[in-house]
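Quick review question:
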């Protein structure tokens, strides 16, 4: 019935797989867990993850080539053999005893995709990750099932969701997204176009992968460059695209570009500090995108 699919890159996820395996063993359904290394280079994590092979119905796949986020998920879906696929990030933690049973209860004929939820640690897990942590905590009001079900396709996320394998094969992730960012947003757009049925539920995994400020800022720039490559399809469906639309109506595009150019070093100094300002972060993203 269920294939659990976990792409990973230089990250040890044996504990995650072990916890999922325990729940699946008690679920009474047919299952498999597939973990695929997307060109991981860290031999320590690869060796640690290979213990996954010791668990029943589990496979650890080591791919030498890095396919990117969209490509590795599509690969895992093609390898899966069960009707429903649960897909999650490898830097997740199981926080309820009912995670698997909740998805099983929602594997119904009236849904093609069931989107779970994300929770963050209550305290900062890494003193150098203030920007990512503040950004994630500020997003929490928009991650409730109630809010997401009022914005069904806009709140699609690959962190924790379940989909029919047949639907995920019919509407694969866009492999133009070879780098970090926006593959999930583009998938939401495609699911809307195809008229697929999406349901959001509160079935959480905890997010553990808090990048330090410098890494997160680099990932943000990478994501914005990825968006630039596919902006014809994507920009109107993103927050930054809507902000750009307002700026253009006010004829302030040049002003934002100039302000960003002059203030970039000072803004980056703030964003890399222990007290990053999220309003400056929003301006930084806008200015960076407009300068591409």
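Suggested answer, residue by residue:
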């Amino acid at each position: 019935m269920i294939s659990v699919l976990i792409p990973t890159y230089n990250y040890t996820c044996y504990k995650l797989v072990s916890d999922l395996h325990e729940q699946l063993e008690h679920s009474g359904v047919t299952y498999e867990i597939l973990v695929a290394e997307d060109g991981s280079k860290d031999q320590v994590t690869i060796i640690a993850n290979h213990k996954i092979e010791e668990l029943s119905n589990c496979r650890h796949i080591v791919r030498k080539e890095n396919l990117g986020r969209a490509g590795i998920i599509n690969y895992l879906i093609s390898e899966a053999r069960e009707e429903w696929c649960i897909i999650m990030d490898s830097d997740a933690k199981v926080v309820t005893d009912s995670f698997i049973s909740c998805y099983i209860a929602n594997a119904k004929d009236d849904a093609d995709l069931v989107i779970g939820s994300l929770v963050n640690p209550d305290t900062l897990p890494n003193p150098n990750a203030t920007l990512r942590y503040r950004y994630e905590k500020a997003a929490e009001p928009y991650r409730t099932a109630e809010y997401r079900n009022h914005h069904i396709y806009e709140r699609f996320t690959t962190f924790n969701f379940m989909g029919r394998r047949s639907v995920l094969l019919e509407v694969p992730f866009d492999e133009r997204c070879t780098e970090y960012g926006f593959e999930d947003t583009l998938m939401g757009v495609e699911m809307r176009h195809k008229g697929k049925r999406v349901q959001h539920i509160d079935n959480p995994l905890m997010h553990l992968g808090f990048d330090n400020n410098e890494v997160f800022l680099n990932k943000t720039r990478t994501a914005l460059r990825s968006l630039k490559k596919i902006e014809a399809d994507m920009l109107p469906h993103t927050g930054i695209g809507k902000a750009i639309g307002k700026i253009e109506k006010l004829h302030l595009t040049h002003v934002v570009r100039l302000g960003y150019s002059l203030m970039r070093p000072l803004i980056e100094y703030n964003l890399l500090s222990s007290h990053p300002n999220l309003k400056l972060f929003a301006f930084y993203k806008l200015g960076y995108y407009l300068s591409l």
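Why it works: The CA atoms of residues 23 and 100 lie 6 Å apart. The beta strands are 2-8, 31-38, 58-63, 84-88, 92-94, 113-119, 160-164, 198-207.
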